[in-house]
Amino acid sequence: MDDAPVIEEGAEDEAPLPPPRRIAYRHRLPTRVWHWINALTVFVMLMSGLMIFNAHPHLYWGQFGANFDHPWLSFRGRPIPGWATIPSTYNLAAARRWHLAFAWLLSVPLILFVVTSVLNRHVQRDLEPAADELKPSHIWHDIMQHARLRFPTGDEALRYNILQKLSYVGVIFVLLPLMVLTGLAMSPAMDAAWPWLLDLFGGRQSARSIHFICAALLLAFILVHLLMVLLAGPINEIGSMITGRFRIAPERPEP
To answer: From the CB of residue 242, how many other CB atoms can be counted at a distance below 10 Å?
Structure first.
């Protein structure tokens, strides 16, 4: 008679151990340094900019804009609260000093980061979307994956998805440069030195409106970015932006 198979006691109840998580080097040093400088700078500039906006909370298009002109957007009677501004009490002169001082911390590191990222091929390797990624079906698939909170796992977690690429490229190469250029266009000294800035944006008041719109879009990006960090795992995500090392979740099995 054949021997019956031997089954160890309790073996049928043992579940396979999950695969160990790997650690990968995710962010280069220039990216990490620029990220934290930019995080501080953008928050200070947004808050000081809101104090400046409180001095005349109306936006216009064209060359001119004064109390008797018709604004396209007005916050009359609804000033930005002190907890959201720098300084917290009304002080236009101090707000301008804060804003201009940190404008250098925004502009110079931005230029250095872009140049460095092009030279070390970070832009071409990590941020440039592939043709297949730009297909509407692929973009929609990524949107639905994020809506279901199904974040990338395995080696896929080391690559930016198309939503990240589009948002990062939009911020780095569109929003931030526009904020710098429109900020320069609002300076009388720069208008005298570079009069083409006023022609480029259709007047100082148009530049001010574009500056405000870019700031609002940048704030929206920051809020979505922070939400995604919290949902994806803040310890791992923030830690990787400090040390550069990222703990990769095991690849999710296909349904």
So the answer is: 11
